[in-house]
Amino acid sequence: HGQQITVNEEKDIATCTDYADGCAYGNIDVCNDINTIYRWKFKIPQNSAANTAIGICSTSKYLDRWFQERMVEEEEMYYAFGYGCKLSFREAKKCREAVEGTEPYRKDDVVIMECDTANKTLTFTTDTWKVKSVVFKDIDFSKTYRMAVTMHGEQDAVALLQFDFV
């Protein structure tokens, strides 16, 4: 994690310590070695800046800047959802697409992120949106990814409630 992010002793809550960009990454490799569904369940204790994003990223080198703002290398990729938008970078092209019926994560939202390597999808669900879920299709699993979180607001946080394989 970056200098602006602290992680608690149990390594299940990442908190932004200042009004500055920061990233935190998981330690589980997500790849196509096995056809499975990786499932993370998060809680948003605070998102006062309304710009927390959660997703998967093929690199963990961006620590003190948002990976979704810094990535330029063609071999790097990410897929994330934050501030009411689908965010992705593939084939050296950034994409930011607003999704009707969604909004930035709010305090106490519970978010489920499922990465299905067999069907090449990444899905986000929460019970506070008007739409059932947000789905990325045709994920390039020739890459290996890790769970990734970006934040900016002081004391904004993401808590990992559960991780499992389905």
Notes on the structure:
This protein has one helix at 67-70; strands spanning 5-7, 13-16, 22-25, 37-46, 53-57, 78-82, 85-90, 93-98, 110-116, 121-125, 134-136, 146-151, 157-165. 2% of the residues lie in helices and 44% in strands. The protein starts with a strand and ends with a strand. The longest helix has 4 residues, at 67-70. The strands form two sheets. Strands 1-2-13-4-9-10-11 form a seven-stranded antiparallel beta sheet, with no helix packed on it. By secondary structure, it is mostly beta strands.
Rough outline? globular
Number of strands: 13
Indicate the low-confidence ranges by residue numbers.
Answer: none
Mean pLDDT across all amino acids: 88
Largest sheet: 7 strands, antiparallel
Provide the gyration radius in Å: 14 Å
Could you tell me how far the N terminus lies from the C terminus, measured between alpha carbons in angstroms? 27 Å
Strand content: 35-45%
The number of helices is 1
Strand order of the largest sheet: 1-2-13-4-9-10-11
Q: Residue share in helices?
A: under 10%
Give the helices and strands as they follow along the chain.
EEEEEHEEEEEEEE
| Helix/strand structural class | mainly beta
